[in-house]
Design a protein that fits this description.
GO terms for molecular function: heme binding; iron ion binding; monooxygenase activity; oxidoreductase activity, acting on paired donors, with incorporation or reduction of molecular oxygen. Pfam families: p450. Keywords: Iron, Metal-binding, Signal. Belongs to the cytochrome P450 family. Helix 10 packs across helix 12. By secondary structure, this protein is α+β, with helices and mostly antiparallel strands. Strand 1 and strand 2 form a beta hairpin. Helix content is 61%, strand content 8%. The N and C termini lie far apart (58 Å). It is globular and about 80 Å long. The protein binds protoporphyrin IX containing FE. The site of protoporphyrin IX containing FE has 15 residues, from helix 6, helix 12 and helix 13.
């Protein structure tokens, strides 16, 4: 009986191995028939090489480059993709935006961030949304609202760090999210942040997943989290409309229906813009700030010089005085530290573009005809 059981098991394993190999081979052959594609592997049907990509991170790209060169094909995050780590091709593609290439972020990201978010819209709608977002960070807004709010938030956030062991990664993540939330909904951030934060973390995870909508997947959890976040924001918008009070925060500015606001957005568009701001400023700012702290810890002389610059500014002010624009402009050394941190800790390694028509990428450099529905992942390493 035991022998029969082992034999069946071995047979099943053999069938499984054989069918896996056939499935992988079929997927490779399917894509190799398409003309003009660079070398590379496409992994499994539907899943492609997403699991390896998410598990290995940058090493996945480095290994593929070692095998296939700086221009190779793959299948990640639900879409056939051509990865380019070639600076000339990347420059060419970025310089020729609009000529058949548009932002090509994964479907999971577009679904979860909303159909009006800036990465999901093209052409004149993209221009309009961009204008609406840029109006929130005009020099006047920075001087009168953004800077004082950040100053006040950071003082409160840092006030009890003394004589404690701090998890810097956790603290910078909280800092990035809570400070953006404060900019967006002002004092109301206090009452919503408790419910908002865990949902937002799920939303972030969901944007980098395969768009498979079944219970237990990151995509499903991210999508549910989006629903909760939309509901919190919608309630806030309704409350503000009923109260008719004006608010000097980003949501108040986006909801302003007066002539002075050039950009009139619907409630759905406002909600997607708010999610875009929170999402774009979260991982980028938290990781950069965390790395700045690490680099300053590793370079005590730089930390000392930075401290001297800030102590000199504080010496001219009373302890409760906030930093103003002139103080900010005078921070030459601090600016150099920020630039150097951004250079060393490249948070955004690459961008994604999608072809809207069959095209030849940089004819002189590479004669490459790309099928519609292929996506480019330009990496800057
Ligand atoms: C260290 C910080 C940051 C880095 C490294 C960074 C990097 C980038 C990069 C590389 C892009 C271009 C993406 C593409 O072309 O596909 C981009 C776009 C964008 N970023 Fe950031 N970002 C940072 C902080 C922020 C913050 C704090 C916000 C908002 C609060 C923000 C909002 C945006 C928006 C809205 C776009 C889209 C612009 C458009 O499509 O016209 N970013 N960012």
């Amino acid at each position: 009986m035991a022998v029969l059981f082992v034999a069946v098991l071995v047979l099943l394993l053999l069938v499984l191995c054989l069918s896996s190999a056939l499935l992988l081979r079929w997927n490779e052959v399917r894509f190799s028939k398409k003309k003009g594609l660079p070398p590379g592997t496409m992994g499994w049907p539907i899943f492609g090489e997403t699991t390896e990509f998410l598990k290995q991170g940058p090493n996945f790209m480095k290994n593929q480059r070692a095998r296939y060169g700086s221009f190779f094909k793959s299948h990640i995050l639900g879409c056939p993709t051509v990865v380019s780590m070639d600076p000339d091709v990347n420059r060419y593609i970025l310089m020729n935006e609009g000529k058949g290439l548009v932002p090509g972020y994964p479907q999971s990201m577009l679904d979860i961030l909303g159909k009006c978010n800036i990465a999901a819209v093209h052409g004149s709608t993209h221009k309009y949304m961009r204008g609406a977002l840029l109006s929130l960070i005009s020099p006047t807004m920075i001087r009168h609202h953004l800077l004082p709010t950040i100053d006040h938030f950071i003082r409160t956030h840092l006030c009890n760090w003394d004589s404690q062991i701090i998890d810097i990664q956790l603290k910078t993540k909280e800092m990035a999210l809570l400070s953006s939330l404060k900019q967006i909904v002002g004092p109301e951030s206090g009452s919503i942040s408790g419910a908002f934060m865990p949902e937002f973390f799920k939303l972030v995870l969901g944007t980098l997943s395969l768009p498979i909508d079944v219970p237990g997947t990151s995509y499903r959890r991210g999508f549910q989290a989006r629903k909760s976040i939309v509901s919190i924001l919608r309630q806030l918008i309704v409350k503000r409309k009923e109260s008719k009070e004006s608010h000097l925060d980003m949501l108040g500015y986006l909801m302003n229906t007066e002539e002075s606001n050039r950009y009139k957005l619907s409630d759905d568009e406002i909600i997607d813009q708010v999610i875009t701001i929170l999402y774009s400023g979260y991982e980028t700012v938290s990781t950069t700030s965390m790395m700045a702290i690490k680099y300053l810890h590793d370079h005590p002389k730089v930390l000392q010089q930075l401290r001297e610059e800030h102590l000199a500014i504080r010496a001219r002010k009373k302890p409760e005085d906030p930093l103003d624009m002139d103080d900010l402009k005078s921070m030459r050394f601090t600016r150099a530290v920020i630039f150097e941190t951004s250079r060393l800790a490249t948070i955004v390694n690459g961008v994604l573009r999608k072809t809207t028509q069959e095209m030849e990428i940089n004819g002189e450099l590479l004669l490459f005809k790309c099928n519609v529905n292929f996506r480019f992942y330009l990496l800057f390493w």
